[in-house]
Write a structure and sequence with these properties.
- The protein has 245 residues and is mainly α.
- It has twelve helices and no strands.
- Helix 7 packs antiparallel against helix 11 and helix 10 crosses helix 12.
- The chain is rod-shaped and about 100 Å long.
Length: 245
């Protein structure tokens, strides 16, 4: 049979057929008197075997090695099966998160914090809600451990109280010229609640660059009163950390 006939029967292009010759995957047949390659059914059988291997995800660079070696084939298939299992697990986790987000939750929260999204971020598309989501994204990205175990543990405890969200709402509603007494009281209440939710020593220390970026984001989005609360809150949390050492 001619090359175009073999290609059609094998379901590949002439270019693919030539490529297989070039990489030594398919032996070139003898040419007829008129110079045309004359393929046999054996070439078709090899082409079909190659197709079976590639359908399983075996790269062409490996097909030559396993084409006639049953032991090598078995080992490679075990590796591919392990890779497929890992990919299935990853996709199942992705589908589970998509199903959760389909309930109206923004995709911004880190995966570990999706169950607490309603506690940590407000649903309305406001400036405040965007700030909250951006802060979480930055914390996840800048942390050494993106699973954020300390924050998950703290949030789990905060979810058992009704005090956290009202305090955050008060913070969001602070007027730029709020009285010092108001900002200090709010910072102290937040500090008390947060230190009760997680031991201060459990909170990891970010590197200076990460801290700088987080503070820059906060300062770009907070008004003067909110900045005052944040500064006092950081001070109170630092005091709690030093006292626990």
């Amino acid at each position: 049979m001619r090359s175009h006939e073999l290609a059609a029967l094998a379901g590949v292009s002439i270019r693919t057929l030539r490529h297989y010759h070039q990489i030594g995957l398919l032996d070139e047949p003898e040419r007829s008197a008129n110079g045309y390659r004359r393929y046999t059914v054996q070439h078709l059988a090899v082409m079909l075997r190659i197709a079976r291997f590639t359908e399983l995800g075996i790269p062409l660079s490996e097909v030559h090695r396993v084409l006639d070696d049953a032991d090598a084939t078995a080992r490679l298939l075990e590796e591919l099966d392990a890779q497929a299992a890992a990919e299935i697990e990853r996709l199942e986790r992705r589908r589970a998160r998509i199903a959760t987000l389909a309930g109206g939750i923004s995709p911004d929260p880190p995966a570990a914090l999706v169950p607490f999204a309603s506690l940590l971020t407000r649903p309305a598309p406001t400036r405040e809600s965007r700030f909250e989501r951006e802060q979480l994204a930055l914390i996840e990205h800048l942390s050494d451990d993106p699973t954020l175990p300390w924050l998950v543990a703290a949030t789990t405890r905060l979810a058992d109280t009704d005090a956290y969200r009202p305090l955050v709402d008060r913070f969001a509603a602070l007027a730029p010229d709020a009285a010092t007494s108001e900002t200090e009281a709010l910072a102290d209440e937040l500090a008390s609640l947060l230190t009760g939710a997680t031991p201060a020593e459990a909170i990891p220390t970010l590197d200076p660059r990460a801290t700088e970026l987080l503070l820059a984001h906060q300062w770009a989005n907070l008004n003067p009163a909110q900045r005052a609360v944040t500064e006092r809150l950081v001070m109170r949390l630092s005091e709690a950390t030093n006292a626990s050492r």
